[in-house]
């Protein structure tokens, strides 16, 4: 059920200029700060916890496409889990999508969708320009 809601979020809410969707890792302090900044602006926000509700491979491809990135560019290669378990992997995009789906904590976050645009946010203040 949650995955269907995520799919709806990417299809429906991504098109609304009155709604912001945030894909986040609950363990990330940066994600928490970004969510706080967005909520302080008073805009409706749908937060999608990617660790407890992993994105499907199809959703990962859709999100990468919206960001104009490859799937491999969604991987945080500096994340401790990635470095410890996977090291120097060289995969094709479908295999990267499978890896992210099974290990969502290695995905770069937060990702914000507002209107028909997606943004990979690197600092909390950056979200003010979305």
Alpha carbon gap, first and last residue: 29 Å
Give the number of DSSP strands: 4
Shape: globular
Oligomer: single chain
Mean pLDDT: 87
Rg from alpha-carbon coordinates: 14 Å
Major beta sheet summary:
4 strands, mixed
CATH architecture name: 3-Layer(aba) Sandwich
Number of helices in the DSSP assignment: 5
Unreliable stretches (pLDDT < 50, length at least 5) are 1-9
Find the CATH superfamily: Glutaredoxin
Content-based structural category: alpha+beta
Name the beta content range: 5-15%
Give structural attributes:
single chain, 130 residues, alpha+beta, Glutaredoxin, four-stranded mixed β-sheet, 5 helices, 38% helix, 14% strand, globular, disordered N terminus
Could you characterize what this model shows?
- With 130 residues, the protein is an alpha+beta fold.
- It has one domain (2-129): Glutaredoxin (3-Layer(aba) Sandwich).
- Helix content is 38%, strand content 14%.
- The chain contains five helices and four strands; from the N terminus they run H-E-H-E-H-H-H-E-E.
- It has helices spanning 2-11, 29-40, 57-67, 80-85, 93-102; strands at residues 20-24, 45-49, 111-114, 117-120.
- The chain has a four-stranded mixed sheet with strand order 2-1-3-4, with helices on both faces.
- Helix 3 packs across helix 5 (93-102).
- The chain starts with a helix and ends in a 10-residue tail after the last strand.
- Mean pLDDT is 87; it is low at 1-9.
List the helices and strands and how they pair.
Layout: H1 2-11, E1 20-24, H2 29-40, E2 45-49, H3 57-67, H4 80-85, H5 93-102, E3 111-114, E4 117-120
Parallel strand pairs: 1-2
Antiparallel strand pairs: 1-3, 3-4
């Amino acid at each position: 059920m949650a995955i269907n809601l995520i799919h709806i979020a990417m299809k429906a809410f991504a098109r609304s200029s009155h709604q912001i969707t945030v894909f986040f890792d609950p363990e990330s302090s940066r994600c928490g700060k970004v969510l706080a900044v967005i909520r302080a602006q008073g805009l409706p926000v749908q937060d999608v916890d990617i660790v407890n509700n992993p994105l499907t491979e199809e959703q990962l491809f859709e999100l990468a496409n919206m960001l104009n990135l490859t799937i491999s560019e969604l991987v945080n290669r500096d994340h401790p889990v990635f470095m410890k378990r996977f090291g120097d992997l060289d995969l094709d995009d479908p295999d990267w999508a499978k890896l992210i789906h099974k290990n969502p904590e290695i995905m770069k976050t937060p990702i914000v969708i507002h209107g028909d645009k997606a943004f990979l946010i690197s600092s909390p203040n950056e979200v003010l320009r979305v």
